[in-house]
Amino acid sequence: AELGLPVWNSHQAATMRQVAPMITPAYPAMNSTLSVSRQTLQILHEEFCRGHNIVDKLYKDFQRGDVLDEEEVESGEIWKELFEPSDFFIGYPHYLSVCVVGPTQQD
């Protein structure tokens, strides 16, 4: 049902700084990643590649018949490397923290 709400379109986005559009699947279609910059897109890409390499190695090991210990598979230990805590504060030692405070809770 058309409700007259603005819908995302690629022609309009081309004139804006939308470097990683991820469009919502429901009406109205909108870009859910407006705040992604080229720098954050690069970080996302690096993390996606890191995850792909880990999963690809597990898959290739499986294809070669290098079956992992059944206990590791059942416990989820094989995914440990994929879900290691982030080294964000080591990789990015300088960052900005913003705290917004108003005179009252309503503000």
Shape: extended
Low-confidence stretches: none
- Number of DSSP strand runs: 0
Query: From the alpha-carbon coordinates, what is the Rg to the nearest angstrom?
Result: 21 Å
Count the DSSP helices: 4
In oligomeric terms, what are we looking at? Answer: single chain
Structural class: mainly alpha
Average pLDDT works out at 84
Fraction in helix: 25-40%
Order of helices and strands: HHHH
Largest sheet: none
Distance between the termini: 36 Å
Strand share of the residues? Answer: under 5%
Give a structural overview.
This protein has 107 residues and is an all-alpha fold. Helix content is 39%, strand content 0%. The protein has four helices and no strands. The protein has helices spanning 10-14, 38-64, 70-75, 88-91. The chain is extended. The two termini are 36 Å apart. The relative contact order is 0.07.
